[in-house]
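Dear Dr. H.,

I hope your travels went smoothly. While you were away I took the liberty of generating a structure for the chain from your last submission, since the lab meeting agenda had it listed for discussion. I wanted you to have the full record in hand beforehand rather than looking at slides cold. The sequence, exactly as received, is reproduced here:
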Amino acid sequence: MGTEARECVPEQPVRRRWARGREWGPLTALTVVVLVGAGLWLAGRPTAADWLWAAATVAALAPAAWSTLRRLWHRQFGVDVIAVLALAGALVVREYLAGAVIALMLATGRSLEAYAQRRATRDLRALLERAPRSARRRRPGGGIETVPLDRVTVGDRLVVGPGDVVPVDGTVEEAATLDESVVTGESQLVARAAGEPVASGVVNAGAGFGLRATKSAAASTYAGIVRLAEEATAHKAPMVRMADRYAAAFVPFTLVVAGLGWLLSGEFVRAVAVLVVATPCPLLLATPIAIVSGLSRAARRGVLVRDGGSLELLGRARTLLVDKTGTLTAGRPRAAETVVAPGGDRDEVLRLAASVEQLSPHVLAAALVRQARDRGLPLAEPTGVTEEPGRGVSGRIDGRLVRVGQLDGELPQWAAGAAERAELAGRSVVWVSDERGPLGAILLEDPVRPDARRTVRRLREAGLTRLVMVTGDRQATAEQVARAVGVDDLLARCSPQEKAARVRQEAERAVTVMVGDGVNDAPALAEAHVGVAMGATGATASAGVADAVLTVDRLDRLADAVEIARHARRIATQSAVVGMGLAVAAMLVAAAGKLPPVAGAFLQEGIDVVVILNALRALGGGLRRRDVPAATGELLDRYAGEHGGVRDVLAGLRDTADLVATHPDSPDCVPALREVHRRLVGQVLPHEEAEEQHLYPALAGPLGGDEATSTMSRGHVEIRRLVDGIGGHLAQAGAGPPRPDQVTDLLATLYGLDAVLRLHLAQEEEDYFSLRD
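The corresponding predicted structure, in token form, is as follows:
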């Protein structure tokens, strides 16, 4: 693959030079002709100058007339007929310089359009040019062979060399450093450990590594992105076709103004002048440039929109329906809490569960293994592993029979409490037990994306007035997520058919967008005006019917796409209205005899340049989000990484609070209190203090001032007060258990600190850490 990519490199500059020649060649030639004619006229040879200018006029008239006649033959009536009439009129009245300037104007417009189109679509073209065509595959008997990409199958072991494009989706066999910017929009290099998944299309920015293919080339991420890019470059936006619809009114209006100018004055030259300034380049060129610029910009933000029509609809959207799992939530379970039997070890319970689950393909097993590895727990190799579908997995760890899954029989008191806690929180429970009984329970959750609530707010600011969450999950869990992100309505326990029916119902009232990530979302995506697939994690089926794909696993890029679409549509409309308004004003002046054809041609040229350059503004602006400086981004990464340790302290804090609540006289009570206080003072408070001194001041710029972090600073004060309160109770208790009069206030302090800390972490992750790309 790498060899073939390098062989293609010399051809690309040749193609680019040829493309530039086609863009600017006609304009350059016509400019030379007009200037040479001007030189001849100044030298006292007006006849020769007129011959050159007439030749330029004919050179422009012939292809324009042929194109117009061909469109009329196919019953397509467009505004370009005005340009043909203006060129022909200039020849009739012998205004050869005016005809040459019109020809120059048309060539300038086409060259600017081609340049703007090439600039606006360069990101989409880059995707197509970088598409891998072959891969290096390891032979079963040893050695490496280069094979066509369509011969790569699931399970093949590949080699990705330095600088190569990853050919198919797979898992890395060694640590790898990757540049994922083309696929995800993330500018920084990303490190992937052995066993982690990697999407096709990313670039190997480090040493070569092995890759185990998990999808064929046709089903891989990059292939789907390339298909969307090909379709995006092959379609025209509705506003491009809108120019032809406007012709039904604009062409007759132009002919009436030209005819009145001629009729009232008896001077045919006035009619020609009107036709010259009426040439509708703003409508023909500026609007498609703005739309294609929006497509290109959305692609740079990690959103591949299928065509200009979809982008235009996205800019008009008023209703959003969004799936819950994998869209508003992470889509994969996370071990939120580990509850252990009295006297048990939380890390040991998680280690035993993850060790047994290492061989299971179940998604819950992957969550347990990932959690244990993140915490640095040494996993043992299980023996005698058996799995009973729907019940769980059992195996021997260091000679000890461990079972992970459902729990039979009557639950002990601590286990019943854990089950009730999970039910209230909408979490699922995985029980860990041995021959003697249950050892602990691991509570799993599908966490809400940290950027979900911020994205919902931005979507409302962008003009979406109705947001609905649809999910097949149970009502209680769905309601918790709906409240967390702030949607307007909720539809729970709905089948794919019910989702599609709800989308159809909403689409009858307003332009509707549907966002989903799974195969079950495909029917609903197809029913929406604009279907958006979470392509970074979603299924090929959902991406295949979508009008746009988020190639990065971040929901806030959807808000980026909506803001970009509205910005591009606004500039497209602005360019058309302003350009045509100026043209109409010039037409009236020309009809009154105050604007001769030559001056009108130069004026129209200026109008064209102004509106086309205005349309290129769609390549920037319009986004409400603020990018954080690199140094601030590093601080966000640092403190976000420390939240895992703070959550570990929180787990011990909750266990200690439960111990004080149930067994305040236990000899383990005070040692547990002292240990959790030690971790709070030694780990949590320094983390909060460092955020106060370094992170919050750095966020003042991106967030618009110090006031944006003031409430979080107040949270730091409350956290310290509660930690000091625990220390005060320990000082009063001395070596013995807490006094009965202390227990009530101590419990309020412990549970209050647990609640405040959890809320504080969630707010930081939503308001601050989600700013990080």
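Two observations you may find useful: Residues 1-12, 538-542 have pLDDT under 50 and may be disordered. Residues 86 and 275 are 5 Å apart (CA to CA).

With kind regards,
E. W.
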